[in-house]
C-alpha cells in the first residue's frame, strides 16, 4: 500500500534529514512541513531548496513545502500556539530526524536535545487527530557495549554505553516505545556520504578520522582489526527509510538500516583503503609516507590520550579527543540483524563507493573549500 | 626533576614527568669539559675490551646534535675545521686509526655506527673498531623534548671480530626522511612514533627469523616509561620484559641509553650467556632502529 500525505519532518537540515527531504519531495503525493530550529539561518523556501536540498525551486515544489520555526526542546515545540494547533490538525505522519549527534556532550545536554525533544514531539503527536505513523531516526549503537548479534527486537540492556549520544538515543527510543503512537524506529549505522558522488553535507566522525590520517596525525586506533565497520550511503539510507515508512509501515517495528558485514570493511581494511585511496588521489600526500595508525588496545590508547591531556598539547588533544568518544565501539564487535527491511534493496557495498567519499573529502578539503 | 623545574629546564609539572617515569636528569658540569666524558668512556671501553690500541683500526665519534649549529655564524672559517674526532684520537693515542665523525641520526646514531663498524671489522683488516658517542645540551637549555627529559652523557663501544658476547644478530632500520624538519613536524613525529616503532621491531624480529617470545630483554632507549607501556601493549609483550630501570634514574640521553643500560644490566646480573636482546630507538631525521644482539 502506498500512503503519503502531510508529513512533519524535524532535522531536515541534518545529514540524514537533507536526503530524506529530497526523497520525500520526489514523491508528488507528499506535502511536507519542515520544522526548522529558530536559531538557524532564516532562508526563504527557494533558497532553502536550492542551497540546502540541492533542488530547483519550481512552483509545484514550493507549493508542497511549508517551513515553521521552533525549538523541539521547548514545550509546544517552541511554535506559536496557532501554528502548533494547525499542525496538529493537518499532520498525518511525523519523521523525527533531529538529533544532536556529537559524542562528547555531557549527558544532561545530550538528553536535553535527544530525549526531551522526543518527549515534546510525542506529546504533540498525541494531539494529531489524523496521525497514522511516526518515525524516529535512531542509531544501532543504542546497543552500547553489547557484543555479538544484535536483534532489531532488542533494546533494553545493561552493558553500558560508549558515549552520551548512544545513551540519549537509547532513552529516546524508550520514550517512544512507552507511547501508544503508531511508530517505527529506524536504527542507522554510520552515514558516510552519497554512493554516486561521495557528497556529504556534514563531515562527521568517519570523515574527520580520514582527515586525521591525511594530516599525518593518526597514531593509534583502539579496537579489533576484524571489527566490522558498518558504513552506509546517505542516499540509500534516506530512500530505504522513506520507502519503508510510506509503503511498508508496520507499527511497533524496529528496523536496522545497516550494510551488514559482507558489504562492510573491517577496521583494518578501512585504514588500508583510506591510505590507498588518499595515495591515489593525492600524490604529494603519498610522498610523505605517513604510516598507517597502529590498531591498539583501549589501554594503550587511553595512555596516549592521557599523555596529550597532561602535556596540554591542544592539537593532539583535539585529534585524540575526537577519536576517543567513538573508537571504543571498535572493541565491541557486533553484527546487526536486519530483517525489518526484508525485500528492500541492500545497501551498496562500501568497496563500490568509498573512493568517491574520500575524493569528495579531498576535493572540498573536508568542507573548507566550496 | 624539581631542580630542573626550578631552573625552567623542563616545562611540564614534576608530577607529570614523574608519572612518565622520569626522576633524574644528568647535566654535565661546566667545570668538567664534555670532552673529558668522551675520553673517559672511550678509555673504559678500550680497557674493558682488552684490545691494545694498535688493534683498533677505526674510530667513530657520533653526536646526535646538529654539528652545524654549534659554530657561531661569524666564527673564523678555520673554526669549522676544528674536529672533535681528531682531538679524541689524539687523546686516545689512536693516530693510526681511521677517525671519522658521524652525526644527524638523533638517537639512532650510535646503533647505526655500531652496525657500520661491525660490517667494516667483519670485512677484514684490524679486528676492532671503537664507537664513541655523546651529547651535552647547552647550559640552561630546555631538557623536555616530546614528553621526555634529556640527560647529558657519553658512551663508547668496542666492536670486534669474533666477539664472544653481544654478537649482532640483525640490524633493521626504517627511515622516513620526509620527517626531516623536526621542529615543524613535531606532532607528525609523535603520531608516527608508535606505528613505526611497531613495524621496526617486528621487522627486525622477522628479519632475524625469530619470534618476539625469543627475546629475553627489550633494551630500551630511555624515553618515557609510559611510551614503553604503550609499545608493550602494541607488541603484546609483558612490560616486565623491557629493562626500564634506567628511565627513572638516568633519563633519556640522545644516543647513549642502550650502552649505559647494557652496562648496568651486566652489573646487576640481568644477562645470561645466549640471551637475545632487542635494542630499539627512534631518531630524529627520522629513523626507527632495532638491533638484535645475542649476549
Radius of gyration of chain A: 21 Å
What's the helix-strand series of chain B?
HHHEHEHEEEEEHEHHEHEE
CA distance, first residue to last residue of chain B = 34 Å
Please summarize the sheet with the most strands of chain A.
Answer: 7 strands, parallel
> What distance lies between the first and last C-alpha atoms of chain A, to the nearest angstrom?
42 Å
> Largest chain-chain contact?
A-B, 27 and 25 residues
What is the number of E strands of chain A?
Answer: 15
Can you tell me about this structure?
The complex is a heterodimer of chains A (370) and B (295). Chain A is of the alpha/beta class. Chain A has a domain at 6-194 and 230-262 and 333-348: NAD(P)-binding Rossmann-like Domain (Rossmann fold, 3-Layer(aba) Sandwich), CATH 3.40.50. Chain A is built from 13 helices and 15 strands. In chain A, helix 5 links the parallel strand 4 and strand 5 (133-139). Chain A is globular. Chain A starts with 5 loop residues before the first strand and ends in a 7-residue tail after the last helix. In chain B, strands 2-1-3-6 form a four-stranded mixed sheet. Chain B has a four-stranded mixed sheet with strand order 7-11-10-8, with helices on both faces. With 295 residues, chain B is an alpha/beta fold. The model of chain B has no long low-confidence stretch (mean pLDDT 95). Chain B folds into two domains: 34-160, Peroxisomal Thiolase, Chain A, domain 1; 167-294, Peroxisomal Thiolase, Chain A, domain 1. Chain B is built from nine helices and eleven strands.
